[in-house]
Design goal:
- The complex is a heterotrimer of chains A (188), B (560) and C (323).
- In chain A, 84% of the residues lie in helices and 0% in strands.
- With 188 residues, chain A is mostly helical.
- In chain A, helix 1 packs parallel to helix 6, helix 3 runs antiparallel to helix 4 and helix 4 packs antiparallel against helix 5.
- Chain B has a single domain, classed as Up-down Bundle (Cytochrome C Oxidase, Chain A).
- Chain B is built from 16 helices and no strands.
- Chain C has two domains: 156 residues, Sandwich (Immunoglobulin-like); 89 residues, Cupredoxins -  blue copper proteins (Immunoglobulin-like, Sandwich), CATH 2.60.40.420.
- In chain C, helix 1 packs antiparallel against helix 2, helix 4 crosses helix 8 and helix 6 packs across helix 8.
- Chain C is elongated.
- The chains are: A mainly alpha (188), B mainly alpha (560), C alpha+beta (323).
- Chains in contact: A-B, B-C.
Amino acid sequence: MTQSENKTMMQTVVFTEAFFFLCLIMSYIYLAYSTGFEPHDLSKLDIGTSGIYTALLIISSFTLHLAERGYDRGNTRALKAWLIITLILGAIFLIGQGREYAHLIQEKITLESSVFGASFFTLTGFHGLHVFIGLIILSIMLVLAFLGDFKRKSSSALGAIAIYWHFVDIVWVVVFTVVYVLPQFTNI
Amino acid sequence: MGTTIKIPEPSAPFPGLGVENAQGLLQWISAVDHKIIGVMYLLTSVVFLVLGGVLALLMRVQLAIPMNHFLHPEVFNQFFTMHGTTMIFFVAMPAIFGFAVYFIPLMIGANEMAFPRLNAFGFWLTFFGGLLLYFSFVAGGAPDAGWFNYAPLNERNYSYNHGIDYFAIGLLVSGIGSVATSINIIVTVLHYRVPGMALNKLPLFVWMIFVNSFLLLAAFPALNAALAELLLDRELNAHFFNTAGGGSALLWQHLFWIFGHPEVYIVILPAFAIYSEVFQVFSRKPIFGYAFVAASSVAIALLSFGVWAHHMFAVGLGDTVNSFFGASSMLIAIPTGVKIFNWIATMWGGKIHFSVAMLFAISFLIEFTIGGLTGVAFAMFPIDWQLTDTYYVVAHMHYVFIGGVISGMLAGLFYWFPKITGKYLDEKAGKWFFWLFVIGFNGTFLIQHVLGMIGMPRRVYTYPNLPWYGVLNFTSTFFAFVMGISILLLVFIMRRAMRHGTPAGPDPWNAYTLEWATRTSPPPLKNFEDLPAVTSRRAWWDMKQQAVNPHPQTKNDDPI
Amino acid sequence: MFLQAVEDPQSFQAEHINRLFNQFNIAAACILLLVVFLVIYVTTKYRRRHGDDSEGAPIEGNRRVEILMIGFPTVLLAWFFYKTLAVSSAVMPPVNPSRQPDIIITGHQFWWEVSYPRNAGTPNPANSPNYVITANEVHLPVGRPLLMELRSADVIHDWWVPQLGNKMDLVPGNKNYLWLNIRRPGDYIGACSEFCGQQHAWMRIHVVAQEPADFARWLDSNARNANPPADALARAGETLFQTRTCAGCHRIRGTPADGAAGPDLTHVGNRSTILTGLLTTNEENLASWIDHPQEIKQGSYMPTFMFSKDSIKAIAHYLEQLK
């Protein structure tokens, strides 16, 4: 397998998944403007806390980039260390999502409670699923690194996975803007 | 790291079905060789063609006379849903992928697809998706809300048996397979071409399927999103599409048609790809206007995302929306018209061989023009307001699907059968098949235009005894059986060729592209040893002209 | 001409669409003939002669011809697009929000609820609650533009009467509109044209177009309450109707029966068919329907009641005389 093949493959994966998230976002916005979301539901969103978790996820992209740099320079210690930190940041993000979900469910906002509930949990849920899958893949990379792989820089795996991880981040920035930030400025 | 089990490579292009040694069934189910996977895709397509065709014939029996009681209404509704779903997802797409994964590596001078295991994964997902869909028949009933499955009829409160759940899950599963295979195709074409084959020197078959793969990657997510949201509605009481809960019935239509319209281009572009090859070889001329044919494929792919609401002209979206989509739908006729002209011009000045493949290509020109013209009628949306959801649409779609897609797959079958199996299909019997098929097809569907114009809606299990309804429907049914018999004849012809067919050499048609450059038909396990660098769009033709030794020193870059 | 329906326009809307369709068909026929001619010509002139294995002429393309082939259809399509817009605004002009519809059709699985706002046609807001409600048989006056409002009580349906012009969906949660300007009195038939479930095939449409005077008379007679039962059997039938849950789904104005889940039966005897076109209205068919509905129109929401044959006869007799 040549280097660029895996990267091309991951780019096409990102291409198709981007359309998928676009459709989920479109559904969210369509329902927001046709049926409309209850202001009561929207007011329960915690933009501050979610903002912090968003920042952590964005930082995890940087840490993964640092892991890549370590790998490029043959520094396996840096690779492993930054991978671990990326994993921790990603996991914290998911925990934060979980806590937001728990808070909303406590306020009786669920998949079945309202159109907002259905749209919110679906959009953020699919994103969370993609983060979770990313964490599994990163864990596999970490385990392989500890088992002795990635000593020479002939593998394109890390580069390809980084494309996926950065994509998941960018999707979250868009979702966060649409779900949390937009209601502050428009009457969604 | 423990013992590794090594499954031996296939020693024959068509392994047996036995289990006593490692060269039987094990080869089929463990195959990662692109040629064996291609064959499995094609066999899957034929099996589902027969299933979907039987469903159609049973429906036509029910519709042969007014007020018939042959099929129960619920059964009829399940049948038309399954017929449409089968033909699009489990006949057209597997046929396309079969030809694609078999011939793209060969045509670009490669020995494998970029990701062989992903290739197998994609096939088995398609196969099992189909099985899951058909399992619904014995699990409480097949889906019965149409292949387009509109909301809120598709919600739990209106469709309480699990047919629609099987529909959703079966299509999600096979959809992932389709996406995986498209990714594989894109990476293969970008990274495995023989030196000298720049993207603008690709055989049109490869180029068009390459473009098609991007279209598929962009369109399937809309279906996946729609199906996921439907499952959430049905299983977890979400409110995407059920109006009673605040959802929007129209949201389903938008999402579905954002997938659905590109989907019909996804199935026709590969047929166009096959015709492009067939017209060249059997006119003994290069394609007329390569750049225009290649560019118009890209135009069609892009434009296909801007026309979806022409399926919704009667939904009440308003003047502005209707006008926009009417304009875009008329516009998309132009690149297709360009192609038709280019194919006719390819024959101009040529030396036309009337092989069965070429006969299907020629009949396609006329049948697809009919289907395309009725399509333009629909783009003129006041006409759509009369004729949508009638038998006029049924006629239109079958002219483009059968006259376009299926004829293309049949042309590909007759063209490539000798390469895949090493045997000729009997051309004489093939011509009988062609005429029976074309007469049956046109007899079935031409008069359905009239049925639509005299007021017969579609998706009805019966109709009242209005003037001419009975006669026209009966005639349509009669010719449908002619078409059915022709398919039986086809299966017979294929079987006879496999067993007693005349052996074919590696290049029976004296063709132009690299798949014919393999030493044998069927190709050896390793397609090519060495290939010279490519200098034109007809690589194999150049090699023959220069009487080039196919085993020179320049090596193909491939690691396999 | 056996091509009734689309080619037999009986309304202003249908006429406009038909004209556009015919113009298009002429252009399309010319293009098809051109393609057929070219194909036959080329395949005949350039067929390979026996024994000739040479190559064809080495033509790779011709840019000028290509541009022409793109330009000519574009011009033709632009022309037809202009005509399309013209017909669209003639057939579906904008609806003034303050204009009250002349008729409101609500789609159900598998029947049509028809209501006429009492002051139809006058520019008054629909405050007056005096609707005339009936089912399945749609009477309309000829000779003036009528605004039809379309709603749905359950799934998506579609109203289509080919002789009267364009179709329009009935979408739950939305209100759609159609304009109708019918030329001549007569009976016009159509059908639901959006798959709506098991009995989509038997959701047929019967429009009775009448001169304005006849229509006004019909409207008034339909606004009246139901006839009282004329004989003993009908009286027995009425009692059964009121006490045996029929009234829970069906309405008969002037009696306590006020159900809205099924068709209004106040003047059912006057309608030419029952079951949205499936059977002629007579006592025998009504009795069969009450006796075994799921065998006649399986999937409809009419339950199978366990009535005695005498009871069924009485109810059918009662309903048939509700004229």
